[in-house]
């Protein structure tokens, strides 16, 4: 078949997991996937029972236990330790909030949040 979509779907994957049906052509993704099956976790939180083999996820988790929030919103009292969370929050100040409550000061840009 000369259809490019069909050809893409039939490409053989170089890396196949022996424990599940995961397949990929990317060695880095495959190594990361294999960590999910590893029973003994390399990173264990001292504050709770969270365990992982992913260093990035572990660092992100540890920030949840931190009492002081170092990243603060300049437009309101929102504070966090996670850069991605702050970035996502800042977006709420930028968008037009077309849905406004008649009974209080609640506003949102998303109709599904307005009930």
From TrEMBL:
Keyword terms of this UniProt record: Developmental protein, DNA-binding, Gap protein, Metal-binding, Nucleus, Repeat, Zinc, Zinc-finger
Domain named C2H2-type: residues: 71-98
Native species: Photinus pyralis
Pfam family name, one: zf-H2C2_5
Top-level taxon of origin: Eukaryota
Subcellular location: Nucleus
GO CC annotations, alphabetized: nucleus
InterPro entries per the UniProt record, alphabetical: Znf_C2H2_sf, Znf_C2H2_type
GO biological process terms held by the UniProt record: segmentation
Protein name as it appears in the record: Protein hunchback
Keyword match Ligase: no
Record function comment: Gap class segmentation protein that controls development of head structures.
Main location group: nucleus
GO molecular function: DNA binding; zinc ion binding
UniProt similarity note: Belongs to the hunchback C2H2-type zinc-finger protein family.
């Amino acid at each position: 078949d000369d259809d490019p979509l069909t050809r893409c779907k039939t490409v053989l994957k170089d890396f196949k997991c022996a424990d599940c049906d995961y397949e990929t052509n990317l060695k880095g993704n495959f190594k990361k996937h294999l960590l999910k099956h590893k029973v003994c976790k390399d990173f264990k939180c001292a504050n709770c029972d969270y365990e992982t083999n992913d260093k990035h996820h572990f660092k992100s988790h540890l920030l949840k236990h931190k009492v002081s929030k170092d990243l603060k919103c300049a437009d309101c009292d929102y504070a966090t330790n996670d850069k991605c969370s702050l970035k996502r929050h800042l977006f709420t100040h930028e968008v037009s909030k077309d849905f406004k409550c008649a009974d209080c000061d609640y506003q949102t840009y998303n109709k599904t949040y307005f009930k």
